Amino acid sequence: MADDEIILSELDDEELVLQMHDDLYDGLKEEIEEGVRILLDRGWTPYDVLTKALVAGMTIVGADFRDGILFVPEVLLAANAMKAGMAILKPLLAETGAPKVGKMVIGTVKGDIHDIGKNLVGMMMEGAGFEVVDIGINNPVEKYLEALEREQADILGMSALLTTTMPYMKVVIDTLKEKGMRDDYIVLVGGAPLNEEFGKAIGADAYCRDAAVAVQTAKDFIARKHNAMA
Ligand code: B1M
């Protein structure tokens, strides 16, 4: 072992989180997995590990990607390391044993292959007791419609990370309207380039800034639906 090799388990929490940001930046999958396990062993909640170590690290990657310091291959490695960390957290976040409160079909829109945020939303929704059917990335309107009908879903969740793909959400909502299906579903949208105004303009029920907001919004809408039915 080299003298200067960092032993993750010897770092205190703050140092370890900073080191994990660096490791995520460098796409070091095994180190990220180890870091996640250490924080969990130290009593961190899965949610704190997710937000403070992984999501915060990915924000740094995003800024440097935007500024041309990182390029697609490096960002892919970082995304891969992030996914490995998320895979450890997923069962823990889902471990509520709560009865299913509703069903959501979620997917990234046509032309868009970003899926980390969508996966995170799916995980958090499952953790909150929702049944989640993830239809993946690059979804044309037909795939959303088919999944919604097949799954008898309560909620449609759409994700878009590109300014060029976010307008496609309106295509999906307009198609639901044309087919007289719009009122059958709660439509929630999210993704970094969206905002509240955009959500309203395209006719979604709500824009969700992050996964925690998505969970709370979904719960609120399901409660309203149940009250209306009662
Ligand atoms: Co892409 N990319 N990317 N990328 N990428 C962005 C989005 C970009 C902002 C980077 C930048 O320039 N700063 C930029 C878009 C610019 C724009 O549109 N104006 C960009 C670009 C340009 C591109 C390419 C075009 C690059 C190229 O090829 N030249 C290309 C597009 C390919 C395509 O889709 N057709 C591309 C490719 C890639 C990679 C493949 C390398 C990789 C994706 C890997 C993967 O997802 N499997 C990648 C990544 C990782 C990013 C950044 C760095 C990080 C995205 C991410 O995962 N964030 C991103 C920069 C950034 O966003 N800062 C960037 C972490 C994630 C947890 O956050 O996805 O926002 P986010 O999700 C949040 C909320 O938004 C919300 O909750 C989540 C959790 O809190 N949310 C929802 C998201 N979806 C929701 C759905 C809901 C509710 C809430 O439904 C109910």
TrEMBL record:
Domain B12-binding: 101-230
Keywords from the UniProt entry: Cobalt, Metal-binding
Domain B12-binding N-terminal: 7-101
Keyword Metal-binding part of the UniProt annotation: yes
SMART domains referenced in this protein's UniProt entry, alphabetically: B12-binding_2
Highest taxon above the source species: Bacteria
Gene3D superfamilies from the UniProt entry: Cobalamin-binding domain (3.40.50.280), Methionine synthase domain (1.10.1240.10)
InterPro entries cross-referenced by the UniProt entry: Cbl-bd_cap, Cobalamin-bd, Cobalamin-bd_sf, Met_Synthase/Corrinoid, Meth_synthase_dom
Protein name stated in the entry: B12-binding domain-containing protein
Native species: Albidovulum sediminicola
